[in-house]
Amino acid sequence: MQVTLTVNGDEVTSEIEPRLLLVHFLRDTLGLTGTHWGCDTSNCGACVVLMDGEPVKSCTVLTAMAGGHEVRTIESVERGDVLDPVQQGFVEEHGLQCGFCTPGMIMTARALLDRRAGGEPLTDAEIREAISGQICRCTGYTNIVKAIRWAADQEAAPAGGR
Amino acid sequence: MAMIEERPIGFGRLKRKEDPRFIRGQGTYVDDVTLPGMLHGAVLRSPLAHARIVSIDASAALAHPKVRGVITGKDLEAQKLAWMPTMSYDTQAVLATDKVRFQGQEVAFVIADDRYAARDALELIDVEYEPLPAVVNARKALDADAPVIRDDKDGQTDNHIFDWEAGDKAETDAVFARADVVVSRDIIYPRCHPAPLETCGAVADYDRVSGHLTLWTTSQAPHAHRTVYALVAGLPEHKIRVISPDIGGGFGNKVPIYPGYVCAIVASIVTGKPVKWMEDRSENLTSTGFARDYVMHGGIAATRDGKILAVRTDVIADHGAFNATAQPTKYPAGFFSIFTGSYDLEAAYCAVHGVYTNKAPGGVAYRCSFRVTEAAYLIERMVDALALELGTDPAELRLKNFIRPEQFPYENKTGWTYDSGDYETAMRKAMEIAGYDELRREQAEKRAKGELMGIGLSFFTETVGAGPRKHMDILGLGMADGADLRVHPTGKAVLGISVQTQGQGHETTFAQIVAEELGIPPEDIEVVHGDTDRTPFGLGTYGSRSTPVSGAAAAVVARKVRDQARLIAAGMLEASPDDLEWEKGRFSVKGDPEQGKTIQEIAMAAHGAADLPEGIEGALEAQTVYNPPNLTFPFGAYICVVDIDPGTAQVKVRRFIAVDDCGVRINPMIVEGQIHGGLAEGVGIALMELIAFDEQGNCLGGSFMDYLIPTALEVPEWELGETVTPSPHHPIGAKGVGESPNVGSPPAIVNAVIDALYEPYGVSHIDMPMTPARVWAAMQGRPEPPQ
Ligand code: FES
Ligand code: FES
Questions:
Q1: Quick one: which of B287, B396, B644, B706 has the fewest CB in 10 Å?
Q2: pLDDT tens digit string along B434-486?
Q3: Which of A31, A137, A142 sits opposite B249 (nearest CB)?
Q4: B703 close to A40: Cβ distance less than 8 angstroms
Q5: What is the dihedral of CA B546, B550, B556, B557, to 10 degrees?
């Protein structure tokens, strides 16, 4: 079947098997290997991308279901040469080790920050809740929470923002 | 790059060099490797734990339009490849020929045009099995009527693998006989799994013309793997290149060689095309290296006033269907004999009996220096059991029995020489951070109100950095590591190392080691790793060996370069080498500091046209192989605070305090990150994670729905502290840290739960994982429910 969707701002049309998972479409068909795959049961969140701004597990979305929608992956987060504050936060707070969960975590965090309309304060509990559908086997989460907090603070700061 | 002012170069909280690619999704993991014309492989696995293979019919699969081939055990047998050696001198079936011996065992390998077609074709292969009774319980593996699992092995008439012992049995029994107090416990360290977020896989690319094999693979030990492939497949070693690119976590899971890798290689040789094989999560959990599975009976003997005299234990070690553990040859039970822990004892004895069962083969050292984790768990549970028996505070009991600083180097009763330690300081520091006395007061108040709060301690001593080659080898390969360092004319350097990162940040810390030694800024040093064509030989990253062994190699090779630089500088300054003084990055003439040459100037001169001093051939480079004189002995004091819901028996880890002493810290930020990660794994092991089996040998932990890994909601914000007791024999005094938190945390958590439940419910032990069902059953005084 044929599907047309927007990936990182570009419209793509492709002939696909109806059963093709979005994660495989992104990785194998489009070569966007920043989105990872880590489980068979929709538990790990290594595959999280944004669909119309909402985090989704791309291993649990058929490519066909993404037709007509806007998908964003880790490859689109940096703007020009400027890192997204979430990316910067992960570096500042040592929020990653092997890096395998990192793209999914960053996408979820980006969506979380985007949802905060006027930059209202974000608690650690809310951050933990937001990433609770995702597994990091390396960091023990404390530094991921700090990384997201770093980005939130950055974006809330008067001189900061995006 | 962030630099600390007083130490512009070298050790400190340097941001990681690895991060820029990972935060952009630009890492290259094995599954990201795509080669022109690449085919995809998938493994057909046994649904039964023990069965004879009657027939395999792959004709329907072969008729699939996208299938390029099917490999079975019979095909491999013709090439003498049906069996491969394990890292423990046992054999393991690559593809089953006679029998399947665990659920999930590899039976056939399909090669197809894409991943979906390869998986489709698995369904088309028809295998007829004749089921056999399965051995699942390790305690019953040696029963006279137990079916013999390894009837493929000449002379094997039962399921026994090895008996191994350490310490002095007679002396220990004598101390036990005269002790005032003896406590014993049956303690299981259950089967768990490292479950790195990236599963295992490989891309094999065999070039028929040149005979070169390039293998991208999820390997923690690329050099050792290359040698094994050369020995198994008969491929010449110089034509094998193993590349272990970015690895999505290893934790010991990626030390063994798995049948899928071998099948991918064979498939590439047969088809002449690159072949990718990536396992799925259930394959990872059901067939690759599990960890632990030790059934232990422990005893501890003490005087009435709390002096610990001796410990002893008898262990049944479940290794599954093939002994695929990766331990140094002389240590079939790894370094379990460090179970004497941090205490000054009169005697100790342990015996370990390895058995085969119809379960996945292993076990690997999951974030662990070869069974140190089981050992630390046992002793720290036994010390708490003794504290209960004596009615003593567990902190006090530990403080009373610690090996004292002046006793180091300390020879324990099972033959280890602990290099250095100051246990009391670390313990007191942890108690101070925790506010131990205040916690005890809070606990008393809560207890009065019927609330369940527990405070658990553990104090571990590890033995890491294997190891001195006269004692330690894997498959005959000595456990040393190489390093080579080249300084280019402009003073930029490339360091090649034999270990590699699976997340630990070697590209950063190893650059820091060279920076510290040579005064070249870390950003000017490139660390090459994970590619056998570009790095010196060594045994790889596991058992916290990177810093103790390879880190030492990096320091030593940098010092060799510095020695050359001194000679060259002496020539340039027309001074005697002995008259030169080194301050980081520069040699200057003693008493005349103006007169000096920087390492960059020296590097240029080393490659320059002018004459060089006698003994210097030119260039500025060196190689070394570091053979550690001893292991290192990191230690730490951990305190865990739990709350248990009396209505649901749910355990919540409220606080976790970890004071680690890993000697000198190269990059404290990375050290702390390692500790955080290992603590979360410890929470998983203690409360959630279990690879269980039913009586037929069906694996009940084969997905992340069943094998529960902590998320951000199950773990607290970690509270860390440190003490620094350098290793006296390590060139930079570092000891290694990666596995400490995984070793030290489970006993602290279990001790906390028992501390919460003993007084109100009389519960003195619960085996891990302490799920609500198990805790509830214990509170009701019922035997544990099956998991
Ligand atoms: S790959 Fe695990 S949730 Fe998508
Ligand atoms: S950094 Fe390795 S899984 Fe999160």
A1: B396
A2: 999 999 999 999 999 999 999 999 999 999 999 899 999 999 999 999 999 99
A3: A137
A4: yes
A5: -130
pLDDT at A117: 64
The pLDDT confidence band at residue B784, using thresholds 50, 70 and 90, is low
**Which positions ≥6 away from A79 have C-beta within 8 Å?**
none
Beta B452-461 vs B635-644: how paired, if at all?
antiparallel
Whether residue B249 lies within 8 A of chain A, CB to CB, comes out as: yes
Atom of ligand 2 nearest to the CA of A137: 3
The structure's pTM equals 0.97
pLDDT digits (tens, 9 = 90+) for B666-721: 999 999 999 999 999 999 999 999 999 999 999 999 999 999 999 999 999 999 99
Helix (H, G, I), strand (E, B) or coil at B41: strand
Q: How confident is the model at residue B426 (pLDDT cuts 50, 70, 90)?
A: very high
Pairing of strands B275-278, B39-45: parallel
What is the Rg, in whole angstroms, of the alpha carbon atoms belonging to chain B?
27
Chain-centroid distance of CA B474 in Å reads 15
Q: What CA–CA distance (Å, rounded) separates A158 from B711?
A: 33
ipTM field: 0.97
pLDDT tens string B186-217 = 999 999 999 999 999 999 999 999 999 999 99
| pLDDT of res. A160 | 44
Q: Is B478 helix (H, G, I), strand (E, B) or coil?
A: strand
Query: What span, in angstroms and rounded, lies between the C-alpha atoms of B99 and B107?
Result: 9
Beta-carbon neighbour count of residue A120 at 10 Å?
8
Checking if the pLDDT of B2 tops 50, the result is no
Q: For residue B735, how far is its CA from the centre of ligand 2 (angstroms)?
A: 24
**What are the sequence ranges of the domains in chain A?**
2-76, 85-161
Tell me the CATH number of domain A85-161, given options 3.40.50.970, 1.10.150.120, 3.90.1710.10, 3.40.50.620. 1.10.150.120
Across-strand partners of B722? Answer: B660
Tokens of B258: 């798995």
Nearest to A142 among B31, B703, B718 (CB): B718
The chain B residue lying nearest A101, using CA atoms, is B197
CA distance A31 to A67: 18
Nearest CA distance, B738 vs chain A (angstrom): 11
Q: Given the structure tokens 């008259």, which residue do they identify?
A: B579
Answer yes or no: are the C-beta atoms of B466 and B479 closer than 8 Å: yes
The per-residue pLDDT string of chain A (162 residues; one tens digit each, 9 = 90 and over) reads 999 999 999 999 999 999 999 999 999 999 999 999 999 999 999 999 999 999 999 999 999 999 999 999 999 999 999 999 999 999 999 999 999 999 999 999 999 999 986 767 899 999 999 999 999 999 999 999 999 999 999 988 765 444
Is beta strand B651-661 parallel, antiparallel or unpaired with respect to B635-644? antiparallel
Handedness of CA B515, B518, B524, B527 (dihedral sign): negative
Q: Please, what sign has the CA dihedral across residues B235, B238, B240, B246? A: positive
- Domain range A2-76, its CATH number among 3.10.20.30, 3.40.190.10, 3.40.47.10, 3.40.1190.20: 3.10.20.30
Q: Judge whether A79 is closer than 8 Å to chain B, CB to CB.
A: no
Beta-strand pair B525-528/B493-497: parallel
Q: Which residue from B227, B297, B279, B244 is spatially nearest to B27, judged by alpha carbons?
A: B244
B711 touches chain A (CB under 8 A): yes
Note whether B529 and B540 are within 8 A (CB).
no
B732: number of Cβ within 10 Å: 20
Q: Could you please report the per-residue DSSP string of B683-718?
A: HHHHHT----B-TT--BS--STTTS----TTTS---
Comparing A12-26, A57-71, B398-412, B612-626, which segment has the lowest mean pLDDT? Answer: B612-626
Question: Considering all CA atoms of chain A, what is the largest pairwise distance in Å, rounded to the nearest integer?
Answer: 49
